[in-house]
Each structure stands twice: as C-alpha cells, then as structure tokens.
Amino acid sequence: MDRIIIKDMEVYGYHGVYPEEKKLGQMFLVSVEMKVDLSAAGHVDNLECSIDYGQICDHIKQALTENCYDLIEAAAIAVIEKLFEKHPAVYAVRALIKKPWAPLGHHLKYVAVELERSRAV
C-alpha cells in the first residue's frame, strides 16, 4: 500500500475551548499519512502522476486557518475533508494533530488526536 507522509508540519491556529486560545492562538503540529496509488509516479518519474507535497501542506494550512474549532478533533476532521476534497486520488487519510503546551495545568509535551478516514465509495 502506497503512502504520502507529512510529519509535524507547524501551523499557527486559534483552536481551543478557552477564550485565550481563540484570542492569542498557538502552534499546532500536524502529521498526515495519505493512502494513494503511487505506482505510476514511481515508474514514470513525473509529478503529474503523484500529488504535489507543497499543495498538500497548503491544504492542511487552509483547513486549520479557515475556521476556529473548540476541539482538535474537529480540526482533524477539517484536515481530512479538505484533503479528500482537493485530492481525488487519495483514498484514505490519517491525521494526527498535536497541541503542544495545552493549557491543562500540567507539565506535558503535547496532547493529540489521531483520526483515520477512508473515502466513501
């Protein structure tokens, strides 16, 4: 099974339950793994047979900056839906969104959600 992977892309967003999070914003780390048939790209060595990684990053950023979400679960769904919308060749997406330094009153590296969805057939 072929995959395109983007790991720990930094996106500044205004997501969270608390008013300060929506006002001040914070950095989020986004990783996606997309299942796609890359056999033609591997044989032909032509970008037109694959998906431009820069476009993937642009679409992840759009999904996280077009709206503000209370929950990173909703932000992850937005990322997945944007990638399905913009890239018809993708048939499954796993999105991991990390929220470093979440304001929980505890010392931690990050909290995160990981969602995986397949395209409806």
Automatic annotation (TrEMBL):
Keywords: Folate biosynthesis, Lyase. GO terms for cellular component: cytoplasm. It is an enzyme of class 4 (lyase). Its EC number is 4.1.2.25. GO terms for molecular function: dihydroneopterin aldolase activity. It catalyses: 7,8-dihydroneopterin = 6-hydroxymethyl-7,8-dihydropterin + glycolaldehyde. One of its GO terms (biological process) is tetrahydrofolate biosynthetic process. SMART domains: FolB (SM00905). CDD domains: DHNA_DHNTPE. Pathway: Cofactor biosynthesis; tetrahydrofolate biosynthesis; 2-amino-4-hydroxy-6-hydroxymethyl-7,8-dihydropteridine diphosphate from 7,8-dihydroneopterin triphosphate: step 3/4. Pfam families: FolB (PF02152). The keyword Lyase applies. Residues 4-117 form the Dihydroneopterin aldolase/epimerase domain. The keyword Calcium does not apply. PANTHER family: DIHYDRONEOPTERIN ALDOLASE 1-RELATED (PTHR42844:SF1). Catalyzes the conversion of 7,8-dihydroneopterin to 6-hydroxymethyl-7,8-dihydropterin. Belongs to the DHNA family. This is 7,8-dihydroneopterin aldolase. The lineage of its organism: Bacteria, Bacillati, Candidatus Lithacetigenota, Candidatus Psychracetigena.
